Amino acid sequence: MDYIKVEGSIILPAKVDGSPDVFQCPHFTLVKPSWVPDGQSSYCELCSIKFTQLKRRHHCRMCGAVRCSKCCGNKIPLPQLGIEEAERVCESCRTVAELIAKSRSTVDNFLIDAAKGLSSFARHEKHIKKLVELGGMQALIALASTDAVTVLSPVISGLQALSNHTALHNHLAEAGAIKAICKILSNVGDHNEQIAVDGINALRVFCKSANFKTKALNDGGLQPVLSLCWSKNDVIALLSISTLGLIAEHLGTHPAIFDSKHSTVPRLLDLALSPDEKTQEVALKVLAILSTGTPQHKHRLVQDDVNSGRCLHKVLESNPTNPQILCNVACLVGNLATNMEDQGALQDLMHGCYRKLSSAESKLELLCHLTRALANFAVHKPNVSHLTFAVPDVVKYCLKSSVAPVQAQSMRLLLTLLGHAPARVSSLLISEGTLAFLTNLGGLPGFIDAVHTSLANDAPSIAKPL
Ligand SMILES: [Zn+2]
Ligand SMILES: [Zn+2]
């Protein structure tokens, strides 16, 4: 038996007889519960009355528990169990059982009642147990195949509430909840703010989990998100972009994002200059994630930035109050800097990075990204003559930093520059504080070993006499 634990309750989720994917097969039938043997209970669990010759035991057809006639007196049809005639259902199952039965109706008002009722159960922690045990989750997902917004609105809010319970993720995904969410998002778009917000929030939960990100993508999660990034509704756009960031962590999605008909990268570059700093931060974060991919995609990003009027340079030159904006753009530039073919187009950004060093002194994360970017630029020999101008600032703000990653990146930068222009850079280092540079060399992990190995080739420890 596959018990799960939700909000402290031990739950045995309802099982579908046949395909568990009730979004594809909305006319599902549940596996009937096994009946609790008569002898196992001498009291009615609902009202505590003792069973006797006169107070007979009755089985609830929904949960299989033994109840007294008062607590199990109602008879209703249970199409979800394949039972069309009215059967006994106990008081603790009745509401959900009726809602599930209604969800299979063809009458619009019944569908609305069912969606609202089941959704309300999903949103109340105390009621989730009954909902999941009796198949209410499946009924909610099956309702997503209708088109009426009055039904879809409570459905998506219920699914969003259920998605907050990690223990339910497997069951939700297996039952087709992600497909249901994507279908609703694709069909309703941003015409209804509540539906879009609940839908993206639910999808976002699955995209956060490494296990379900791929499932969310296979179930069609990318397209509605790409489309909603263009929403004129700021809340929806921001949520969609941040969800896109989670999706883009999966490198396999980059071709679809770069080639999407929605011109996603130009849109993100545009949002990088949004008047809202949170939007700027999130758009730049997604761009930075997209810059971790292939050289071709980095090149596309650089080209899109040039075509968009060099948004990244404008961001780098700005002084936002949100410190994460500059960190994200510096991280992005650092990633782009490894592309040799784009060095010409990246010159402005390289200069922007070293001009930012002096104002980044106390901002350690930014300093680290800036130094990494400069170290990446230094690999390209033609950049060296420009970067030597940055040496005094690098020594002052980075090399002497007490933060190890900043120190390590500045060492990488200086060593690369030394390799390309030893005379010029060493004279600069002597005038700017060689001591710190030399002292730190010994502390670089593996550095001494590498020097030993290199020296050993030219100066072996054992030799034959001449
Ligand atoms: Zn009773
Ligand atoms: Zn029952």
Automatic annotation (TrEMBL):
InterPro entries the UniProt entry points to: ARM-like, ARM-type_fold, FYVE-type_Zinc_Finger, Znf_FYVE, Znf_FYVE-rel, Znf_FYVE_PHD, Znf_RING/FYVE/PHD
Superkingdom field: Eukaryota
Keywords, in A-Z order: Metal-binding, Zinc, Zinc-finger
UniProt KW Zinc keyword: yes
Listed GO MF terms: zinc ion binding
Domain FYVE-type, residue spans: 38-98
Metal-binding listed as a keyword: yes
Protein name as catalogued: FYVE-type domain-containing protein
Organism classification: Eukaryota, Metazoa, Spiralia, Lophotrochozoa, Mollusca
